[in-house]
Amino acid sequence: MATSPPSTSTGSTKLDALVQKSRAETPEKLSGVALYSRFALAGAVCCSVTHGGLTPVDVVKTRIQLEPQVYNKGMIGGFRQVIASEGAGALLTGFGPTAAGYFLQGAFKFGGYELFKQQFINYFGYEAASRNRTAVYLASAATAEFFADIALCPLEATRIRLVSQPTFASGLLSGFTKIAKNEGLGAFYSGFGPILFKQGVQTCRIHQHC
After folding, report:
1. pLDDT at residue 18 greater than cutoff 80
2. Average pLDDT across the chain, whole number
3. What's the CA dihedral at 189, 149, 173, 84 to 10 degrees?
């Protein structure tokens, strides 16, 4: 006795094969941790690379701000002065805390933004969130940036100390440990307000239409 085709069968062997192939090739829709971790990783890598790559510019900028009477020949002249007086390696001062800090900040900023945006949509409902999408975008970005800066601030404080005081420590771990030991954990957040304001405005502008 011939078996009847399954309930999902179209009745055509060739058409059934095409349907099965299409289902196999359709990527599974991500959600939850699997989804937000990808946003976080993408943001972490991009922020770490872009900010870390600009470390030499930040070193020269800091020198100009701290010693304008010495570094008064502009950006290009500042590069030459730093290399001449401290060596080319000095341009990478603070690279460790910059790359690590913005890796964490990028993860919280972009992963957190998508997470909080979905939470706001769930809370207010799709229709209400859609009508007030700009407010939802800005609130999601601001909330994500708040937590991102909590992660960033200790490493940013270490970076600033290393760049402004080249003899303070040899790198990320020694500088971080020295600040924690001599000044306490509160020293890492002494600049939290300005960083939050600076990064918050920037983040809200980025995500305003996302």
Report:
1. no
2. 87
3. -90
Q: Which DSSP string do the residues of the chain spell out, in sequence order?
A: -PPPPPTT--S-HHHHHHHHHHHHHSPPPP-HHHHHHHHHHHHHHHHHHHHHHTHHHHHHHHHHHH-TTTS-SHHHHHHHHHHHHH-GGGGGTTHHHHHHHHHHHHIIIIIHHHHHHHHHHHHH-HHHHHHTHHHHHHHHHHHHHHHHHHHHHHHHHHHHHHHH-TTS-SSHHHHHHHHHHHH-GGGGGTTHHHHHHHHHHHHHHHHTT-
Structure confidence at residue 1 (pLDDT): 47
CA angle (191 as vertex; 149, 178 as ends), nearest 5: 95
- In sequence order, the 6+-apart residues with CB closer than 8 A to the CB of 73 are 80, 81
Task: Dig out the tokens for 112 from the structure.
Answer: 């957190």
Q: How confident is the model at residue 148 (pLDDT cuts 50, 70, 90)?
A: very high
* Two tokens, residue 122: 């769930």
- The CB-side HSE value for 71 (13 A sphere, CA atoms) comes to 20
Give the range among 15-24, 89-98, 141-150, 183-192 with minimum mean pLDDT.
Answer: 15-24
